[in-house]
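Need residues for this backbone.
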């Protein structure tokens, strides 16, 4: 790393049938934006139609740098959202450096997994301090279908300095809700998590927004265990969802139809009259319980929630303003976008409007991201670090 250099980024996305050809197209375009600089880190998002183990291996071989990757439910580059594609953000560090942890299975006990995902942090932090890089951010990608991801975020945050940010997303699988993958370098695994610790001379900016509102009368979670809601107002949770579908004239008479309906109908957990957090359903238990991405406490007051295209776009604009302010005047090099799959489904063909709203604030800068299952933003002043139906923006300083 040369202290006189600035961090530069390049972004691109592509879609096609062949993984090697599709990824090659995206890598070439993103690489060209770096000029004569070599990338230090590649952040890669790939549809399940492009096997992540293959995509990560190709990126590692062609670039010769670290690769942080996960499967997705939509691939973002600049103002485009692709389906069945790949997107990449290539980063050549200036006054910054990173350390990439290995992939860790989420079936490991929480403290063990957290220790493994922060194993090289002390050495990394010591070297960063010696180079005058006083600001820290950890990028985290994990299995968005795992009930343990939210707890793991908190455990990782507790092992890092107080002012350190943890940002990222839950890996996805195009809404199939079966298996998701994450990767560190060439190593890719399902049901796992990975982190990359970044130290920089100037702070990164992080913005968070959801734009959802209640669409039902409040209900009480009368029985729940961790992320599984067994009963709402004394009724099996799945019966409440089936009634909601019937009232909307939607058939859920097959497992596939029910799964697709669940993905688009989240619940909001109340704090007095406000929606404090949103939780996305990901499956049904045999006894009629509904599993969510993240914990829903027993006794909580909840409502079905939804956003409108207009509210989502405005929330994106506000999140971008928040992230830009976090840069404290530094020049912007690139942006990572972690946006919930629900936002993509509500916006539909209008999804580029969310990305255009972001660009209105940031200007024309390299941008890449994904539609995810859960969004991570554990930052100072925000105790709740795991979100659903939310947009998390990460602004990388030059």
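Answer:
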């Amino acid at each position: 790393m040369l202290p006189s250099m600035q961090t530069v980024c390049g972004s691109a996305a592509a879609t096609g049938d062949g993984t090697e050809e599709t990824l090659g197209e995206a890598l070439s375009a993103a690489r060209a934006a770096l000029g004569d600089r070599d990338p230090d880190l590649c952040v890669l998002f790939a549809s399940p139609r492009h096997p992540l183990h293959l995509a990560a291996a190709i990126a590692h071989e062609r670039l010769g740098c670290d690769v942080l990757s996960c499967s997705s439910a939509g691939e973002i580059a600049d103002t485009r959202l692709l389906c069945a594609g790949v997107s990449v953000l290539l980063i050549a560090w200036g006054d910054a450096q990173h350390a990439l942890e290995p992939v860790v299975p989420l079936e490991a006990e929480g403290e063990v997994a957290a220790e493994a995902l922060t194993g090289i942090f002390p050495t990394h932090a010591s070297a960063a301090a010696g180079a005058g890089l006083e600001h820290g951010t950890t990028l985290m990608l994990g299995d968005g279908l795992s009930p343990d991801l939210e707890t793991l975020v908190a455990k990782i945050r507790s092992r890092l300095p107080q002012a350190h940010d943890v940002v990222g997303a839950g890996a996805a699988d195009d809404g199939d809700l079966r298996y998701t993958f994450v990767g560190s370098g060439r190593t890719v695994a399902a049901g796992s998590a990975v982190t990359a610790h970044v130290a920089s001379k100037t702070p990164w900016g992080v913005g968070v927004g959801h734009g959802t509102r209640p669409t039902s009368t409040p209900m009480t979670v009368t029985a729940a265990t961790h992320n599984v809601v067994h009963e709402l107002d004394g009724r099996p949770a799945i019966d409440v969802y089936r009634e909601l579908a019937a009232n909307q004239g939607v058939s859920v008479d097959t497992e596939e139809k029910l799964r697709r309906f669940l993905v688009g109908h989240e619940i909001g957990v109340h704090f007095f009259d406000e929606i404090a957090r949103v939780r996305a359903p990901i499956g049904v238990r045999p006894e009629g319980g509904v599993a969510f991405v993240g914990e829903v406490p027993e006794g909580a007051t909840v409502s079905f929630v939804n956003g409108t295209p207009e509210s989502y776009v405005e929330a994106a604009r506000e999140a971008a303003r928040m992230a830009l302010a976090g840069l404290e005047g530094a020049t912007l090099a690139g942006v990572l976008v972690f946006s919930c799959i629900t936002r993509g489904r509500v916006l539909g063909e209008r999804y580029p409007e969310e990305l255009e709203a972001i660009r209105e604030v940031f200007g024309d800068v390299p941008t890449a991201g994904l539609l995810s299952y859960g969004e991570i933003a554990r930052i100072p002043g925000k105790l709740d670090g795991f979100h659903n139906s939310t947009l998390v923006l990460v602004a990388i300083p030059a």
